[in-house]
Amino acid sequence: MKIQVSQLIVRYLERLGVDTIFGMPGAHILPVYDALYGSNIQSVLVKHEQGAAFMAGGLARATGGIGACITTAGPGATNLVTGIANAYVDKLPILAITGEAPTYIFGKGGLQESSGEGGSVDQVALFAGITRYHKLIERTDYLANVLNQATKHLRTGIHGPVVLSIPFNVQKELVDETILDQLSFPAPQPTTHIPKTLLDQSVELLKQAESPLIVAGYGCIQSGAQKTLLKLCEHMNIPVASSLKAKGTLDEHSPLSLGSLGVTSAGYALKYIQDKADLVMLLGAGFNERTSYVWNEKLLHNKAMIQVDSNPLQLEKVFKANVSIQADIGDYLAELEQAVQNQSLAPKKLIDLAAYKQDIEIQANKEGGNKIFNEQFDLVKAFYRQLEQQFTDGIILFDDNIVFAQNFYRVRQCDHFYPNSGVSSLGYAIPAAIGAGFKVNKPVFALIGDGGFQMCAMEVMTAVNYKIPLNIVLFNNQTMGLIRKNQYQQYEQRFIDCDFINPDFAFLAKAFGISHHKIETEQDCESVFKQMDVHKSINLIEVMVDQDAYPNYSSRR
Question: Residue 270 is part of which domain span?
């Protein structure tokens, strides 16, 4: 039976397991939209194509599945770039379908043409550096191969975004529906075998160490290794720090948790590495700029190191390891735990980390000015304390701001924390949270500054239109906080292009048709949660922050 390419694309999406697609129609993509009309896929109309890519990414992060977005040619495709770049860096499986001008006008200056012919925008070149696979489909004779390649990059190996651009006339061409039967939908690849010699070396290093430390990275979460990690660290009394993306891999209320490691953290894990650790186990952690304290060469000086990662490109990218292993983190931890039991390794001396952290705080107070946050941030701290207390069953947090939650919110096993990693684009949190909101059944929070909010505020109406519950926590200090901090610390307070006047957020919320709540005192924190419905409504929670309050850390930028 013959069907249009547009219909085939929709059926392909269904076979991939896609049931929600975010986007905005335009003339050059309408055949695919028409095929979506009677499908099982819900199409979601966004306000800006960047939001569509962020929503697809939010859904992918929250579900572990494939996120999808769809746009027209020209500006529809170019508006995706930041969101696709974000997915590329975060290794998220995102499929973007874009329209294109008809092939028979390529090079003639057609409206919104992006074929690269005749001086037009070259969309292939535009996406080349930020996708795992991108194809302008000019013919149908290789369509099966293109879709197989797309599937491979979405479902196996190192994940990342795929962009398929389909000219208007090609979308309407007839092809045999049996093309779908030629497609392969492979399961995830089997895990890599762990050589016994490397496992034995890991056990020996652990045996010799007096104060080992595990640094858990996002690879632990990707492999679902949280329970295996907990089993090993409790068995051996090994403290755990995490990268920012892996915050909560070990419940941060655990007596073995040192919180997250990194420039913008309180510094407990850093101090532990410097003063106590003699073995550092990097598990699925890339040791990027934040985590490595801007690649501080002294951080792991005279420490033994084991690094395990499923991605071979991450191994020893920054520091030389005594043992370097490409493996799934869950598999490695399970085999290491079994080996530890087989050899009856004695647990390490249990350290009272609560007292250790308290001593660091006391010392910081004595030295003065060395704490990352002073009393000017007590209101923010009180808000996060309430956030912890109010939701015993867990919440989902998409975080633009990062530095507040990293220090003030202790992520539990029942929580899901998604910081603005990737390319760290301001405005990410709201559309990403909306994307996740289509699939999750826990309260969803988007944590964002007032600068970032105004880069994506239009997507609040997407949540309104589709009745997606959402809680937006907006930190209002009328400035681009990071820029102002750096100009204060490093540029002699020559403030330029950081301060601004905000709209009246209460009136703005009213215009959106959502609830508004303002927090100006610590007493407001508790009362706000009593007033609002965080499960079924959309709330804008405005938290006031002093414009001249600065976290005490330096990013050397």
Answer: 196-356
State how beta strands 396-399 and 257-260 pair.
Answer: unpaired
At 46-58, the pLDDT tens digits run 999 999 999 999 9
Q: Please tell me the distance from the alpha carbon of residue 261 to that of residue 218, in angstroms, as a whole number.
A: 13
C-alpha 325/C-alpha 336 separation (Å) is: 12
Both 455 and 505 in one domain: the answer is yes
Q: Report CA-CA distances (Å) from 30 to 36, 72, 117, 505.
A: 10, 8, 23, 37
**Higher-confidence position of 352 and 28:** 28
Q: Flag whether 557 is in a domain.
A: no
Q: In this structure, what CATH number is given to the domain that contains residue 169?
A: 3.40.50.970
Query: For residue 192, is pLDDT > 80?
Result: no
Residue 497 CA: distances (Å) to CA of 452, 481, 484, 552: 14, 11, 9, 21
Q: Is the dihedral of CA 417, 264, 257, 249 positive or negative?
A: positive
**161-175, 400-414, 498-512: which has the minimum mean pLDDT?**
400-414
554 lies in some domain? no
Instruction: Say whether 29 sits in a helix, a strand or coil.
Output: helix
Query: In the predicted model, what is the mean pLDDT of residues 72-98?
Result: 95
Q: Evaluate if pTM is beyond 0.85.
A: yes
Q: Which of 11-15, 59-63, 403-407 has the lowest mean pLDDT?
A: 403-407
Angle between helical axes of 49-63 and 429-437 (0-180°, round to 10): 60
Pairing of strands 2-4, 174-176: antiparallel
- Do 360 and 267 meet the contact criterion of CB atoms below 8 Å apart? yes
CB contact set of 297 (below 8 Å; sequence gap of 6+): none
